[in-house]
């Protein structure tokens, strides 16, 4: 770039022209899958870079009045030793922008070595705990990395772990995925993070006209996959059946409404059969289940070890599984407390709660309740030995934390998929006289910025 061009580019960037390219030094990693850089005093959140690199970026969100801008790396001028070739062309920012379009979301760390990915995720978690909860150190957690999961099943390369995948559809009826924070849909012909059973469906070869969204679930146990089709407004049943007919005969197919999660059978079952921790589970439609093929075992192991080692989970114990989903933790808790103990299992989603009833019908010590966690705890007070808390990404929140503390359990095992909401809630617990006494962090989403934590919280002595 000539000096004149560089001067023009800098002037355009000052004016906030989206699409402008500028050169930046990449700063520290931040929560959300980006790093922090600065240009003329303004913060720019940069995706697809690595701390310490010098890069050329394209501004993707640059309103003049905005507090910060967003940008994608389009050229690496000085590379980090941890930079690797991206495994997926569609998600490779450098390659995508060289072809005139943004990369798909969902693999924003694919240009970073796995070891550095895990170190960066630990940095984010530690920073969130310091900033939002005032926690500098956690007993038993070094804070330098997150734990790898599934090396035996993914070959150690962080690929082939997703048992669930969500796709959009291009205007021409082809399988695609959205670019990050964009309505732009990029056609895809592979999903390297997905298990083989999802790629084997070859959804990219199917005419998906009349469909807005496609959700796929392929259980890690190899049982029958389920494809969910979200029809576009006005799509007729005949068109849905025509799409279903293009799929392999052994695959279950259903239509679904993303707003209500209502599912209607087109062929086969409207649910999948999952296996974890010695139990079988039925999970209906788009009902929640851990995405990584080895996540259920890793999380169950983390939770039960914390609770059992602390003397909170044993025969005869009184426990609760909150935001219980289809009952992954509930079944394991029922085994641990036996018929002399009791398990209160609470889930807000009606369909998923029905799954839990089916999955736990043979366990008399389990009570399944569908409803809001804070309401159920008020209505069914018990002297809890322990609670398991596995809320959605938004976390539990102040009101729920207050209700949990008022329930006076001896301990709480908190499972979280978001370090920011987790740290915020830990702050609420600390204000109420509780401490974070144990923490494990798992890399259940390789090549993305996401991570999962299992924490033990207990009243302060």
Summarize, please.
The chain is α/β, with parallel strands linked by helices and 461 residues long.
What does this structure look like?
The protein has 461 residues and is an alpha/beta fold. The chain has 12 helices and 23 strands. The chain has helices spanning 3-14, 93-98, 114-133, 151-154, 196-199, 237-245, 295-309, 328-337, 350-359, 373-379, 398-406, 419-431, and strands at residues 21-25, 29-30, 34-39, 42-47, 54-61, 68-78, 147-148, 164-169, 175-178, 185-187, 211-217, 226-231, 252-257, 262-267, 271-276, 279-284, 318-322, 342-347, 366-370, 386-389, 411-416, 434-443, 452-459. It has an 8-stranded mixed beta sheet with strand order 7-22-23-21-20-17-18-19, sandwiched between helices. Helix 3 (114-133) runs parallel beside helix 12 (419-431) and helix 10 runs parallel beside helix 11 (398-406). It is globular, with a radius of gyration of 23 Å. 48% of the residues are buried. Residues 1-15 have low confidence and may be disordered. It comes from Pseudarthrobacter quantipunctorum. S-adenosyl-L-methionine binds at residues 290, 323, 347, 390. InterPro entries: MeTrfase_TrmA_AS (IPR030390), NA-bd_OB-fold (IPR012340), SAM-dependent_MTases_sf (IPR029063), TRAM_dom (IPR002792), U5_MeTrfase_fam (IPR010280).
